């Protein structure tokens, strides 16, 4: 697995290839952050967007209303997604909304663990963080495969710049898990022309901080989703900085 550091990357934010491309963005929250920025920029590129919001809120509704005039097609699907069946139901609904998808950008945010979290608490938290991106990836890839459509999937893990040491540990475990998942899926999907990559915080032990809403991450996510990175698959990009 290639761990490629994302540090001071200068990628453009103009991707005409995204125009008309059906892109599903999950993990969008009313509190803003990476998902909101990705949706806004996709709309500016005239992409057809399916928004998977973690919960209904006035902020999410306002986002949909703001980007709707720009996006040729917009669908808003809200949670909460509290269990495996909820996520699968959401993923299938999202696939049907636009007759399929060309790209998926899953955003998974690492929150703060409970005080005095046990190993079991951390394991459960990592499972909860990655359930949406992993399940959506599998449903989307299966849809692409059965319709003989090439596509791209990007899974992004982020956490707050001022996250506690314990949250950073959770982020590290989540990063390792999503890296292994990405490598495994890339091998399985290579013959079908489906690319899958991941972006996650670099190890804090290397002097990096967790990040959220970093423009470089948004740029890279759009670069991969646009299809320009069609020769990239199975890669884990480490986000450095904050």
Q: Can you give me a brief rundown of this structure?
A:
Helix content is 41%, strand content 21%. With 242 residues, the protein is α/β, with parallel strands linked by helices. Helix 1 (34-44) packs across helix 6 (215-225) and helix 4 (119-146) runs parallel beside helix 5.
Structure description:
This protein is an alpha/beta fold and 242 residues long. It has a single domain (3-239), classed as 3-Layer(aba) Sandwich (Rossmann fold), CATH 3.40.50.720. It has six helices and eight strands; from the N terminus they run E-E-H-E-H-E-H-E-H-E-H-E-H-E. The chain has helices at residues 34-44, 58-67, 84-97, 119-146, 165-189, 215-225, and strands spanning 3-6, 22-28, 48-53, 74-78, 103-110, 151-159, 194-201, 236-239. An eight-stranded parallel beta sheet has the order 1-8-7-6-5-2-3-4, sandwiched between helices. Strand 2 (22-28), helix 1 and strand 3 (48-53) form a beta-alpha-beta unit. Helix 1 packs across helix 6 (215-225) and helix 4 runs parallel beside helix 5. The longest helix is centred in the middle third of the chain and has 28 residues, at 119-146. The two termini are 24 Å apart. The model is unreliable at 1-9 (pLDDT under 50).
Give the count of structural domains: 1
Structural class: alpha/beta
Radius of gyration: 16 Å
In round numbers, the mean pLDDT is 88
User: How many E-type strands?
Assistant: 8
Largest sheet features:
8 strands, parallel
Q: What count of helical segments does DSSP give? A: 6
So what's the CATH class?
Alpha Beta
Strand order of the largest sheet: 1-8-7-6-5-2-3-4
In whole angstroms, how far apart are the ends? 24 Å
Overall helicity:
40-55%
Would you identify the regions where 5 or more consecutive residues have pLDDT less than 50?
Answer: 1-9
CATH topology: the name is: Rossmann fold
- Secondary-structure arrangement, i.e. CATH architecture: 3-Layer(aba) Sandwich
What string, H for helix and E for strand, traces the elements in order?
Answer: EEHEHEHEHEHEHE
Overall geometric form: globular
For the record, what is the CATH homologous superfamily label? NAD(P)-binding Rossmann-like Domain
Bin the strand percentage.
15-25%
């Amino acid at each position: 697995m290639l761990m490629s550091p994302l540090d001071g990357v200068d990628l453009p934010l103009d991707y005409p290839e995204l125009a008309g491309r059906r892109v599903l963005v999950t993990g969008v929250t009313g509190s803003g952050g990476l998902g909101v920025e990705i949706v806004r920029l996709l709309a500016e590129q005239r992409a057809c967007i399916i928004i998977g919001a973690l919960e209904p809120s006035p902020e999410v509704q306002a986002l949909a209303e703001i980007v709707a005039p720009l996006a040729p097609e917009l669908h808003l699907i809200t949670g909460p997604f509290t269990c495996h069946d909820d996520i699968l139901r959401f993923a299938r609904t999202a696939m049907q909304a636009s007759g399929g998808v060309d790209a998926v950008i899953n955003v998974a945010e690492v929150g703060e663990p409970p005080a005095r979290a046990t190993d079991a608490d951390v394991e459960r938290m990592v499972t909860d963080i990655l359930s949406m991106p992993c399940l959506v990836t599998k449903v989307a890839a299966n849809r692409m495969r059965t319709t003989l459509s090439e596509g791209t999937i990007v899974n992004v893990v982020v956490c707050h710049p001022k996250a506690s040491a314990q949250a950073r540990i959770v982020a590290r475990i989540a990063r390792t898990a999503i890296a292994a998942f990405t490598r495994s899926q890339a091998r399985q999907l290579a013959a079908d022309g489906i690319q899958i990559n991941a972006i996650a915080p670099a190890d804090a032990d290397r002097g990096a901080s967790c990040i959220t809403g970093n423009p470089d991450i948004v740029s890279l996510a759009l670069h991969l989703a646009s299809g320009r990175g069609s020769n990239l698959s199975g890669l884990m990009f480490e986000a450095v900085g904050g």
